[in-house]
Design goal:
Helix content is 35%, strand content 19%. It is built from 5 helices and 7 strands, in the order αβαββββαβαβα.
Length: 150
């Protein structure tokens, strides 16, 4: 499967869990959660320090994510990414997006060893439709320069 096909498959059901969601409205983890909700995604937040975010129940760990969420977006600091990825593998989640800048030198290897379809080194805002603001311009530039996934 190409990276483009993987991205389309990941986003198509508009249903995903996110590890790294923040209650702080100024943090990226909140922005991702909030914007995906506004775009019509059914988002399952994972944050062990919150009971809910914007009225949506939070789960303490990957292991508590309800079974109907088969896609996982990881937006954690790098030092947590591979731990979460291994938990996803244990839970049987096979389609994972590690947000740009969250991957480590071992992320791809861990995904490959666990037969996980991994999307990494990409920003979800560039692909979750409708793409707006600076992300729309950035996507246009990447398209012009032939840097969008194929």
């Amino acid at each position: 499967m190409t990276k483009k096909e993987s991205i389309i498959q990941f986003l198509a059901p508009k249903k995903l869990a996110i590890v790294g969601v923040s209650r702080n409205t100024k943090k990226f983890g909140y922005t991702v959660f909030n914007e995906l909700q506004q775009k019509g995604f059914d988002v399952c937040p994972v944050n062990p320090k919150a009971k809910d975010i914007n009225g949506v129940k939070c789960y303490n760990s990957v292991f508590e994510i309800p079974a109907e969420y088969q896609k996982l977006l990881i937006i954690t600091p790098k030092n947590e990414t591979d731990i979460v990825l291994k938990q996803a593998a244990e839970k049987g989640i096979k389609h994972v997006w590690v947000q740009q800048m969250s991957n480590t030198k071992d992320t791809s290897k861990i995904a490959k060893e666990n037969d996980i379809d991994l999307i990494d080194k990409e920003c979800i805002f560039m692909f979750a439709e409708p793409v707006t603001s600076v992300h729309k311009f950035h996507k246009f530039l990447r398209k012009v320069f032939g840097q969008l996934p194929r």
